[in-house]
Queue: 4 jobs
Job 1
Amino acid sequence: MAETRSTCCYCGVGCGVIIEHEGDQITGVRGDPAHPANFGRLCTKGSTLHLSAGPETLAVRALRPELRTARETARQGVSWDAALDHVADRFAAIIREHGPDAVAFYGAGQLLTEDYYVFNKLVKGLIGTNNLDTNSRLCMSSAVSGYKMTLGADAPPASYEDIAHTDCLVIAGSNTAFAHPIVFRRVEDARKANPAMKLIVIDPRRTDTAEAADLHLALLPGTDIALYNSMLHVMLWEGLVKRDYIDAHTEGFDAIKKTVREYTPAMASAICGLNKKDIETAAEWFASSPATLSMYCQGLNQYAFGSHNNAALINLHLATGQIGRQGAGPLSLTGQPNAMGGREVGGLANLLSAHRDLANPAHRAEVAALWGVDSVPEKPGKSAVELFQALKSGEVKAVWIACTNPAQSMPDQTLVHEALATAELVVVQEAFAHTETCRHADVLLPATTWGEKDGTVTNSERRITRVRGAVPAPGEARHDWQIAVDFARRLGVALGKGELAQRMFPYADPESIWNEHRESTRDRDLDITGLSYAMLEADGPQQWPFPEGASTGKQRLYKDGVFPTVSGKARFVVTEHAMTAESPSARYPLHLITGRLRDQWHGMSRTGLVARLYNHEQEPLLHMHPEDLARRRLKDGDLVTVRARGGTMVVKALESTTVRAGQCFLPMHWGGNAMSGLGSNTLMPSKFDPHSKQPELKHAAVQVEAFVAAHTLVAMRASGEAGADNPHALMERLRPLLSGFPYASLTLAGREHPVVVLKARCEHIEPALLAELDRALGLDDPLKTLSYSDSRRDIAKHARVDGDRLTAVRLAGEALASDWLTDLMVRRESAAPVRNWLLAPVTQPPAGKVMRGKVICNCFDVSEDDILAAFRAGESLDALQARTRCGTNCGSCVPELKRMQNATPISRAAA
């Protein structure tokens, strides 16, 4: 077995991993103990990366180029030459007829820095348009804007190590325990080492992160600015600001002082729905602590005033001098593995390489000279929402989408799907062919993915890590930078710029791209001229800036109080409370908040391939307060219709006290691959921040009503049995059926041997659909199938037993037994003792069998029921962990274990 050092491909923590592999197969993964971001730890997602790269996942990999010349036909496999020549000719024709702004490119924070650099040069240098944006626009652009407004550059000042040195940690708009679990492990370590450390969590929901807080400020959605302005008001009133620091190192304080004068704690209390005393306490802790660190993510960024959310929080750091010191400063938590690297090379429609601004003529001239072109276009490109609006209107004719899934991740999904259908040409460069966006592709270009790529990424703390491929590309897949370079050369010929394209894109390997990118940073704020591939490989990950001649990078910025602004001073930004894009009304009375699940990531194109990652939350669920359920005469588990101004969806309700009455929560991961309809983001408005152009994906106003449909359908198929299907291939065959139901979910259950689970509800199921479903599940052979039918009540059931194991089930019209049947299939237990009950309408397993309940610890497969039984019997958390190992690996479940322990009474017998 061989081992290769690389990084995780999920959140922006940038965890180091060691990939274990044999031949062309990845066989395992573990945390890299030498990597300074994680020191060997991995979350549930990272620790199962190898399971998303197993041989069975080839069923949904893009393995060869595919092309169609008419929308009504299916794509056919073609050669790389045929695919790229076709696209080059089509792009060239559109550019000649309509100009370069008639084409656009949309990329991702999962691209490597080298990939990003080539695309940026292709679009802005060769084609001559700034229509290059990425899904980083959806997650980090407001953080970028906030940094630039206040500090002068897109450069997070603090580092992860500051967590261990802070005395007051503020986590705002982030369920760090779920979204950045390894960072949260560092928080837990820091608090254990320093029990006096204060933790303030600012979040509308009582998340696992909030459960751990000394002070949880459960503000109303979108009221952060009022809170931070009020905290600054308190600091001024109580004399807690640092006037010496303000006078020496900042400007604009008098203007912000006038503004926050009106934001009394009483006023903010009314706006935010908070206790006045809690606002005062937060202000005192923030200002008075020897060192205060803030960490924040989408709960600040994803609003139509996200830039000012960020600026208002940074204002507090500037007013109190809590920046540029050990344990102090603002630290945005990046949502993707290389969103930072993409920003470094100008991978947004308003940026240029090395943190240069498109609006600056000198910056444009510098980049033009670097690239050897006459000029770089001045006109800003289309940002993400604008790009798809332009596709819909016909202003943009062709779009190239690389390594992202806008048909799931963008807001206003109805518009996005209409835009992709309207476009003259849709090119999708993707590793996984089953994504929602791939269905719209006229040309599908197979790309490499995690474990196969070679280059660099930059994490949230400005740390650059070498990424190495462990296995060869499957099929005909190519690296993203290779595809872009090949296309650029062909497009150059088609546009009569063949010699220029050859000069601009001479790259034979990613290191040559890196070296050019490195030189572009010389004398810039992110200068990395002192780094090389060889150094990163020998000395490990390094933080920028790391200029030529330096021996190390900078752990924290602005120690000297000098900022990259014209005056050298940081700027206070006047921010005012604003209303969310949508406000609750009589028609839409509930706040809908979106966020992440612990074990899923983004649109689930990768995590959705791993059965155990569904075990914590198995299907799309709308978390609702008990009062809101009761008011609508609903109960836990009922199906509900969620109506928003932009669309509707049908999901199952989950009773939860993590949200206030008047609020509900929906995970953002679910798309058309996993449910009927277009997914969670169908409900989200497309209004965006005027400064960052980041859309308000965090909040919408909705109504929730009971969904009533008479006919129930549950169908399941186990894998790993003789004749059983590849689960991913089976899910692909079942996905077209989802659109035929007003409610449906398609997920996985189990662990080593996945069970495909389809749930649906409608008024009536056509016999032809049932027959199609039975064929897909292997239930169409009467000699191998147990059957029950009651035509009067429209009930029809099938079950298949191979050997002594239940391998497939279809329950139509009544599905009371579905939960325990799923449990039986997942456990792979003998069906012989319950054979006579397989089609019976009973909710509990017979013969004394007990269901396990949901899995809390995915690492060691420890269920909720087992944990609760242990706590009721008087077992301590330490003893439980020693016996079952739950919570001792990645630690993601530890907050939930503590909550369960605190909420579980010990039985009298145990006492």
Job 2
Amino acid sequence: MRGITNKLGLLACVTAVAMLAPAAASAADVKAARVWAGPEYTRVVFDLSGPATYKMSQGDVPGTIVLDIAGSAVAGEFAPPGGQGLFKSMSAGRQGNTARMTARVDAQAKPKSFLLKPAGDYGYRLVLDLYPGGQTDPGDNAPDDEDASAVAAAPAAPSKPVGATPARGKPLPAALTGERKVIVAIDAGHGGEDPGARGATGLREKDVTLQVARELADQINRQPGMQAFLTRTGDYFIPLKRRYQIAREHNADMFVSIHADAFKNSDAKGSSVWVLSPRGKTSEAARWLADRENRADLVGGVSLDDKDDSLAAVLLDLQQGYAMQASESIAGNVLKALGRLGPTHRGYVERANFVVLRSPDVPSILVETAFITNPSEETRLRNPAHRQELASAVLGGVRNYFESMPPPGTWFAAQAARRNGTSVASVTSPAPAAPVVADAGAVASTAVKAVTKKTVAKADTPTRKGRADEDVRDLHRVSRGETLTGIAQQYGVSVGALKMANKMTDNNVRIGSVMVIPSG
């Protein structure tokens, strides 16, 4: 009897295993695949029905990449995507208990792959990125914990904007150092397979943000002394950190991220403007000081790599302090301009730890144009005339900031100098981004020099003998972070002569004051 019982038990176990085997094998079916070709790389995204392990290898035939997904099968409705960019075609099959996806790609393409956990409306995904031959990965596009939800099935990388300025820290051409245009980076939120919020009638945030961003860029580029570029020019996603990196790489004077808000209550309405929270500033500072690659980069024109920890922390804090102060001012201007267009969600600038706002040296704001989940606001967002008004309101706030706080060497600074009866100091050659300085105070001044210094010279008026200012060579408006030592070194005069010319009894300089620079 016991033998019969054991046999029956064994048979039951085998039957149970046989019944469970198909379920285990299909636990991570490959349901679909999509391709997005961006300016810098091509991304292929596989939708999986569950978690999986996989192996990537080069195929036997040149120009093929094989992805073996263990314990998986290809769903019956699976359809290979069409070729785009570096991706040519795909075949799908099965090897035992493994789904085999064979992609035919450009022969010179360099692959990179990673898995994504469920986020937002998306389930498990396997991502295959293809980079052009000879090109390195333009940043870590595999998301970390804090921005994985926004990455979703992140497709392609950013474009290199046409007419963009040189990389941060490199000298500008001489033609740009006198009255250069201010550079505004405009970031259209979401994109590609990350649609963002969705309105009741199906309007997608990623479409609205790109439309408003394009309109804003067009309006900015029609303004004297201003130039805009888009972080994305089409329907593809850019990892969040990469967005503000683009702004830094192109020496942007300002970063504006465009979004459309959403809320479970459809009555929520109004525009809002956000800046980085103090917590975000602190956490980003910790990352920069701990990351050797970050420290080797230029912040405000100065590398932190060769500075000791204390000095690097001071320089970074100075630069971040300036950027956050400028961001607050810009955000206030933009919120006021949007308030003239319609109601704002709240009557004050809001703060959050948004990844896209974390640039340590580029003033950055995030604009929520409206609540796309509000039916009336969704209707307005569909209207090109309303989007044009939104862009005009943002432009007004941005332009007002540059008029009141013109970056040195820009067209706005030149206009301000002329209004004040002065002219921009002549420039004979491009100034280095990080000149040699003698002490820590001057180094701190240098860290913010690129964005805070305002130097003007006397107006070209006829001179006459006996003028009270005949020994005056230049005038200098003191900006945040500057020191008496740094100003003296900048003009090649002694600290004593500078103090005597300005009747100073100590070494303290006041922000906003105009100092006389003696001729000798």
Job 3
Amino acid sequence: MHSFSEQCLDMARSMLAHNLDSIQPDGTIAPVPGESPRLDEPGHVAFALGEYYRATGATTLKGVDLVDLTARCVTAQVFTEPAAENGLAYAALGLLCFGPSKERNLVWERLVDETRQRIDKQLLHRSDYDNHWQSFNIAKAVARFSFGLSKKDETSRLIERMVDRINQTSSTGFFDDAAPSGIGGNFNLYGVMSFVFTRSALQLHANSGVRDRKLPTLRTYAEKYIKMMPDLVRADGLGWAFGNASGAYGQMHCISLILQALRDGWIAEDQKGKYFDLLRRIFLYFYQTYLDQEHGFLDLRDTERDANNHHTTRIANFDAARYLCQWSRLAKTVQMSGPPAKPEAPRTVGRFVIFDKSNRKEQGLFLYRDAASGLHAQIPLVSSAGKPASDVLPFPHCPGVFDWPNNHYAPILVPELTFGDKVTVPAFYGKNCVTGLGLRNSFYFRYEQPELITTEEEILKGLGSVKVQWNFAGPKISAEFAYTVKQQVTLDKFRYMIAIAAPHSRYRVAGSLALGAEGHRCTVQKDDFQAVWRETEVVTNDPIYRTNYGKIHYLQLLLRDHPLIMRPGNVYRLAVNFEPDVVQIDG
């Protein structure tokens, strides 16, 4: 693992060197052309510089004083108005990287008294969160106690509050990134991030006893994500692939979680070989898909692909440099004992991971992998926090084969029914979720919605219901949606959409999946809505239609744009079959 460690450090140096000139004299961060700065950017930069210092012990890079730059960024962050609590948490941990106390901290010595007083005041202020921002509160508490700004250590209490909220919102202990709107159950990549960030904060705590006492608590919940990884990660190394925060972060957070788990002994000896192989694949995908290897920086968005609107190119580069430094340190502590595990023969797997199961709703993630074709899909049944988005709709997420636009809503592979001003999709929650083996070793995943739900996650009581079933037999996929209404109602519009994308022309991994010349081979087996296929829409030049991985070129739309009277007692079905022509691309 030492060559991997050095490789990470070299990449971090290159990434930082390319972005240090964006740090302004006042500590704010200049954005790349075409983007706007974020209020929490100085904090992210401070943490990245701090982790570089921890990994190397160096206080300069290319002749630039990193201690001075960190002091500027910390100062800019604590005086930011309005205060960005996430940025404060990153800045606080960045400070701690340079020393465990005020008396032995290189950056603290550079700060003026006004800044020190401001840090004291800002770390004291704390809101109460029931989403991933609670991990930022934990980091602030760690810094406040470690710097001697408070004799009372709140770290343990805040961690217990975080896991209490997890237990309240998930029957199986997964992280609900709660939002003010929506049905609830916003299970996404920020769950992984929360445990990674909290673990990083505990590692910097001045009192190692607190870390040792709280690690078993973190392990109880983080292990659930760790155990998902073997079925989640695609053969080419693609990691977490649904939700608007995936993409580069879908790789980085997963790598960090696995490395932390290996360091802490959370992975059994007989499983280590499997997780080392996962690490290798996820890292290779990250390296070849998001790094400009010629110039040495992270390339987040271009004319072919996009990223989460909140992820600026600067933040992504400094976050990646921070993670690379952490990976470098962690890799040195992880010892591979015994002979490397033999690679397992690929197996066809269908598995439903339950995130929450209650009387009100059931949510989870269905994972399917076909050993023969390499088709590997993630079907999320989760909330999108009340904001319409394609990235959490319950269809087979498989970049290169089944794609969707980032930062944009479209009814990809699910029927959209419009009643007046209410737009419904069979998404976000289910009841009676069931998975199992069908005929000829096929897998099925089915659920029902006793009440229809809108794209804004408003449940429409008394309107109708839908039953959904997905079937997987090798590379063949079929879906059936069966609607019934409780009273006569007018359906104003019906839409069903397929997006056809191509892998990135430059950033790609050999062996990644793509559609061959015969495409999806889609057939509509039954359509009681009597919709018709419209002429294929070419969107190659439309910047809206980009994914985290490549460009969408075509949209196929099945549409009924005139009213249909739906009557109670009738079942209205849409059944669609796919036999995608799955190929593996060259690097």
Job 4
Amino acid sequence: MTEKQEENSPHLLVTRTLVLDDYDRIVAIMQKCYPMMKGDVWLKSQIKKLIRIFPEGQLCVEDRGEVVAFALSIIVDYKKYGDSHSYEQIIDDSNFGTHTADGDVLYGIDVCVDPDYRGMRLGRRLYDMRKELCESLNLRSIVAGGRIPNYHKYKDQYTPKEYIQKVRHKEIYDPVLYFQMSNEFHVRKILKNYIPYDKASGSYAVLIEWNNIYYNEDETVFGNQKNFARIGVVQWQLRAARSIDSFFENVEFFVDAVSGYQADFLVFPELFNAPLMAEFNEDNAAKAIRKLAQYSNEIRDKMVEYAVSYNINIIAGSMPVYEDEKLYNVAYLCRRDGSYEAQYKIHVTPAERNDWGMIGGDKVQVFETDTAKIGILICYDSEFPELGRILADQGMEILFVPFATDMHNGYNRVRVCSMARAIENECYVVISGSVGNLPKVVNMDIQYGQSAVFSPSDFAFPHNAIVSEGTPNTENTIIADVDLNDLKHLHMHGSVRNLLDRREDLYKVKFKK
């Protein structure tokens, strides 16, 4: 991300482990979150000890260098405590002598989000980090004692059990319990006097648990990195948009739906904002698309906002960008930390050049994300093997291809070439296209598309090299998991090794600029 882009981004989120210098922010957040505790916050010595005995378990989200949310946890040998315990017992009266690296359960002892950042789903982000930690450490589950802060409003009407059922059936809203249930935690037990001074909860707490389905009782693994990427693909219906707000409503629907599956990436098609061009029908094609470009910065910023709020990396299809009196076709990678980068379409089609006066960019690059190294080639660019090879040389693992094609033959070019890119570059390729019609919108009036996720063709991958694909010419989404470790194995031990076996003594592909 350039300095200018960073300055214009409202947020720049980073997830990391806590350090002792974060203590003042921890106190400030706790005082805002728990005013009823009257200054009862973690001591600096306690935070220091947690960081010393279990540094990877103390997590936070920072925005532009300032901590705005944090989560604390320890590892316990759960059979020593069972389901009938108090908060003070589990944290050993804040001495944390209960923590043991040989334990089987990650116990959450605190989660706090700055109230000014609520609505950005930072709590879910922290929970997802805990789940990844639980899996990487090969722990059986995550357990925590959850407050039920709205129970005091209903204690004369319902028992705690009845209250939990009402929350589960969404007849009562409890912010803590609802959040935990939404994050795949189930209730193990109701605890009395878990935190005796928690009057809002009636001194009750709900013992919750998330089970690690990858847990291996005979294996302890430390420091594993994420091996899988979950990819969401939108097969986008081009429909009339009454306003940019209605356009955003359609976009947010898919972001919300796909993020609910805890996907790492979401990709939209090329020129997915074309419906907004309908209001410029009276202009010629060249003027209309330049007017459409006036929305591009606003849409990009909104996509960055969605990426942060829904905790998902978004490849925002592509949009026309008019800068320095030149018209480009640009795809934006909007990361869930609030940063973004741009990939310009290199090769413009004859129709883009003749009808719109569009020109090509001059750079391709691999983008680092928190899950994988990715590349973006917009539609026609996927039909030039040199670009994919340049990205593969930079370590690309997943190639995203947002496209827009009007007829089946045009779609076939993108599909077949994208499958070839996956095989020759030993990577996954994700294509996302539009369907439907836009009357009177030149170059975008009819669409044919079928989105898909392609893999290399070898024993570890599907026999037809298709991980998943959508229904042709119908609005739908794809959710697909891809194994990044399979790529690493393929590079060195595949039946054929396209990258390793290249005759670079005879030929080489490189970018001139």
